Amino acid sequence: MKIVFVQNFLLDNSGLTSPDNFYPHLGLISLIAELEKSQHKPALYDPMLQLHRGKLTLDSSIYDDVAEQLLNIQPDAVGLTALGCNFVAVVKIARCIKQRSPNTFVLLGGPHPTVLESPIMTKFSDFDVLVRGEAEETIIPLLDALDAQSDLSAIPGISYRDGPRVCRSRVEASVMDVDRLPLAAFHFYPIHELGLRTMRVEAGRGCPFHCTFCSTATFFGRKYRVKAAGKLVSELKCLNNTYGLTDFSLQHDLFTVNRRKVLEFCEEVRPCSFSWTCSARIDCVDSELLSEMARSGCRGIYFGVETGSPSLQEVVKKRLDISLLHPTLTQAKELGISVTTSFITGFPEETVSDLKATLDCLDSCLRISPATTSLQLHLLTPEPGTALYEENKNQLLYDGHISDFNFPPLAADEPALLRNNPEIFMNHHFYRTELPRTMTTGVTSALSHLSALGGPLLQAVLECLETTLSNLLFTILSRCEKGRVTHEEVFQKLLLLIIERRSRRRVVEQLVEFAWAHLRARQPENNSNAQPRPNGSDGDICVARGTTLFRNTFDIPTVLDRIHHRVAAWRSTSARSTSHNFVVYRGTSGYESKTLQVGDNVATILDVLTRPRRKGWILRKLPAADAQATNGAIVDLLRRGVLHNCA
User: Fold this and answer.
1) Are residues 206 and 79 located together in one domain of the fold?
2) Which residues contact 538 (CB under 8 A, 6 or more apart)?
3) Which of 47, 165, 570, 596 is a good FRET partner for 458, with 20 to 30 A between their CA atoms?
4) Would the pTM count as exceeding 0.90?
5) Are residues 76 and 216 part of one domain?
6) 467 and 374 in one domain?
């Protein structure tokens, strides 16, 4: 039987694709590795890659187009995986497949379907089989049975259709021994084509803790499992030998719970000179363990702290001792380990003082090491199968807000589908809270936008304004129009606050404007824009979208570098220095921004080309002696994407 597995369809909260999502789905390539031992023929399809390659358009037609591309592979079955955030896309794709090819089996798995098997199978008849939990031991007997058109009742861990009835197998699939899993089928993903330099690798499964808001244990179970050191390192070595990879992200929500296993891994991986990152709790690391991890190549740790409020820590059963945060991050800094500190707001019982405690915690994390600390503040998302959801499922509310944990609608009928089915699409809803909804959505959006400054510059802004992170966020929100916490609004309000200051006002203002220019340049290009031609010989040319010119200014990149390295001399920078010109522009990938230092003549050309002009018109305005150099400069700017040919 030929089966094509479909990777998750993920967009950011702006409704855009992100290069962060270009990686093989570890669960799917684990299933493919199992199927390679059988007579079945697996394939892997990634809609994000098809968007990246220009073979899909991000609008309401995308579901039909995905279905068409999948069916062009001529599969007997399509395997869909789903998170809560993107389940609406999975529903739409399944419907399009069945409309085009009713006899193609549509299989469904993943965290969201595992918990919601009954309502999903009842509501959406396009799914033929739903696989619960870990599927490595289920997938081969399931495909064998489908291929032979035999009875499915003995297949463990599935729900399936028998005519109009939905049936459920009585036997649950067993919890996998992760050391028995073959190396995942990374070769099914175009790693070389994408030039990936880091790779996610599954380090284990399961969670022994009882946080009320998290569904990890619901899907993987509470049996905590980490791969044996020898097996995990052998997988890293294999990826290194095959793809030249030396940097790895070890995927396990709680890699350091079993201290002995982490030390064994450190001993095994140390001679390889690999770099790696992982996730941990602040109460599951200590001084000795962090030192051993750093010696063995650990360069980053993700800490899920969730809340800075000790009382809320107890309420949500995270039960971290917040006093451990400062010494843990301080030692990580001393060892050269970067950290991500992740927090959540929007808990039903959360008060303003709880939120302020969380923001103060984020502030403290930033001040320990601005250059190596990444701050995250997420909006709480209702997750099925959690204690928090069970307590509040009858009080869910919907306002259509798009966060980083739900999927923006692409078709006109989707908002109604989401609103009217909270028992299935709860990730798009929110809990009734003590805090105003505008406060929780506003503060998460504002911090996300401010993070574009980078930690060192954000810290410099706080010093300039002589304020704290919580005060800055609340002040910006108070000045934003209700419901308009866009990056434009946030940066405009921030610049106004800086202008109101006297000390170092102009220098910091220019640095923030420079960072904002980079943020604008990283916004993906609108597909309707004309594509630049190399020589600009035909038609008008003009400054490309996302390009910003900084004329007659101080050496902005050098000052930012000094701030990054905490060199106090940056404070003596004079805004009166006017000897530099810089251009911030969009990189060729559409997801990167670049800086180019230019001379006065090029700056003048860019000033002129804020309006479309013909190149010949520009050259005629200059002395003949300068025409050749100007022509060369224009060609170079077109090649870089600073200029483009106008339609």
Assistant:
1) no
2) 645
3) 596
4) yes
5) no
6) no
pLDDT, residue 175, reads 79
Same domain, 105 and 227: no
pLDDT digits (tens, 9 = 90+) for 354-363: 999 999 999 9
The structure tokens listed for 432 are: 């009734």
Q: Does one domain contain both 344 and 490?
A: no
Please give the Cα distance from 624 to 530 (Å, whole number).
31
What are the residue ranges of helices labelled H in 303-379?
A: 310-315, 325-334, 352-368
Domain end point (choices 316, 349, 380): 380
Cα distances from 52 to residues 5, 20, 56, 377, in angstroms, run 18, 12, 8, 28
Is the same domain home to 101 and 195?
Answer: no
Q: Give pLDDT tens digits for 519-552.
A: 999 876 654 444 444 444 457 899 999 999 999 9
407's CB contacts (< 8 A; 6+ apart) are: 9, 10, 11, 85, 86, 87, 88, 89, 428
C-alpha span between 311 and 315 (Å, rounded): 6
- Backbone torsions φ then ψ of 199, nearest 5 degrees: -140, 140
DSSP string, 547-574: -EEEEEE--HHHHHHHHHTT-GGGGG--
Query: How many residues in the chain?
Result: 647
Q: Which helix (H) or strand (E) holds 247?
A: strand 247-251
- Give the CATH number of the domain where residue 129 resides: 3.40.50.2300
From 501, 522, 552, the end of a domain falls on 501
Q: How many domains does the chain have?
A: 4
Q: Tell which residue, 408, 392, 479, 493, has the closest CA to residue 449.
A: 493
HSE, CB side, 13 Å, CA atoms: give it for residue 149: 2
Is 552 within the bounds of a domain? yes
Note whether 40 and 2 are within 8 A (CB): yes
Same domain? 225 vs 348 = yes
Q: What is the dihedral of CA 343, 424, 315, 341, to 10 degrees?
A: -10
- Do 238 and 338 share a domain, yes or no? yes
Q: For residue range 559-595, what is the model confidence (pLDDT) as tens digits?
A: 999 999 887 778 888 878 888 999 999 987 657 899 9
What would the two tokens of residue 347 be? Answer: 């808990």
How crowded is residue 592: how many other Cβ atoms within 10 Å of its Cβ?
12
Residues 407 and 88: beta-carbon distance below 8 Å = yes
Contact call for residues 274 and 224 (beta carbons, < 8 A)? no
d(C-alpha 95, C-alpha 78), whole Å: 12
Domain that includes residue 452, residue range: 436-501
DSSP state of 173: P
| Residue 256 one-letter amino acid | T
Q: Which two tokens stand for residue 205?
A: 């499964």
We report the CATH number of the domain holding residue 583 as 3.90.930.50
